Amino acid sequence: MRKKILHIVGSLNQTKQLHQIARHMPDYDHYFSQFFGEGLIFKWLAESGLSDWNIMGTNGAFRNEQKQYLEKVGAKYDYRGEQFQDEYAVVFICSDLMVPKNFTNARIVFVQEGMTDPIDWKSRMIHKLSLPAWIAGNTSLNGCSNTCDLYCVASQGYAQFFEEMGTDRKKIHITGIPNFDHAASFLENDFPYRDYVLVCTSDIREVGGDDDRLGFLRRIKELAEDREVIFRLHPNEKYSRALKEIQAIFGAKVKIFQAGNTDHMIANCEELFTQYSSVVYIGMALGKKVHSYFSMDMLKSRLPVQNGGMSAKLIAELAREQFLEAELEFSIDSFAYQNPQWAFYE
Fold first, then answer.
1. CA 112, CA 238: separation in Å to the nearest integer?
2. Phi, psi of 49, rounded to the nearest 5 degrees
3. CA–CA separation, 170 vs 154, rounded Å?
4. CA–CA separation, 50 vs 64, rounded Å?
5. SS3 assignment, position 194
6. Closest listed residue to residue 245, CA positions, set 205, 206, 214, 221
């Protein structure tokens, strides 16, 4: 029988990342599931609509984008992994804020999705008291649970951060991460605009945070001067509110996108403004002038490895070697020697 692999996804970025890995493992049966928490309470929260603002919700923006993509590529779906629970050999996840424990025969592989939210006093207290990381209400503790069997991360900077937060360094491999490992590939695109200021907003308010959105917009207006400004809204944002705010400062004719290829928009821009968004890394890798709520020093230290788009393949081979096919001749050490652009955290 072919071994089964489950991919637990949430956002479109997570879905595309794990699907890329699955494509490099065609000799296994792959299934996908919406992100979930164990137990009837979390299942009710996900299906009642109360969680539609986050990746656990079954009817929100995250789920809708994910569903369209999975249907387009013909992926098989097993919600919560209930159909083949004990048959899964490996479970890939992009968030260890909730790690399923009901897959008794599976090894868990964490694939970093992108940047994590800043650590604040609440996050540190939750981590120090060993409380469930999801209580923080954000991604600040993602990658810090040390509950997965393997951690595939974006860069040396993130590897050091996860280790400092308690994840076993022996589990961590700097593989780079799909969607952020080949920024140069986005330069060839059919997005019709060029040389503008691009603003990629975040869903800070939608997830319960404080956002001085008007102050942010006024600052962009000042720095953009007479250049064209284009907005790419986070898919989870309340569109009507964002639209009203942006038009109040930039006028009714300003270009605002709630969908579309963000990477292509970044490739064609002159300057990029972000809040708490991983897409800042694409701008940095392409040499754009970028702005972020994070410090530039921190972003530079954590910039994802650029390896020509090979992260998904490397992660697939790691899972094969360590958990699926022990007899494989593939060696991580020899692979790194032959491909020095890949660093490993030892």
1. 26
2. 100, -10
3. 16
4. 15
5. coil
6. 214
Helix (H) or strand (E) holding 93: strand 88-93
Q: Is a pLDDT exceeding 90 seen at residue 60?
A: no
pLDDT in tens, 107-161: 999 999 999 988 989 999 999 999 999 999 889 999 999 999 999 999 999 999 9
Alpha-carbon distance 141 to 118, whole Å? 9
Q: What pLDDT, on a 0 to 100 scale, did the predictor assign at position 326?
A: 61
Structural domains in the chain, CATH included, are 4-181+304-338 (3.40.50), 183-302 (3.40.50.2000)
Q: What is the pTM of this model?
A: 0.88
Q: 90: which residues sit within 8 A by CB, 6+ positions away?
A: 3, 5, 6, 106, 107, 108, 109, 319, 323, 324
The Cβ-side half-sphere exposure at 238, using a 13 Å CA radius, reads 10
Q: 209 falls in which pLDDT band (50, 70, 90)? A: confident
Residue 297's contacts (CB-CB under 8 Å, 6 or more residues apart) are: none
Task: Give the closest residue to 196 by CA, choosing from 222, 228, 159.
Answer: 228
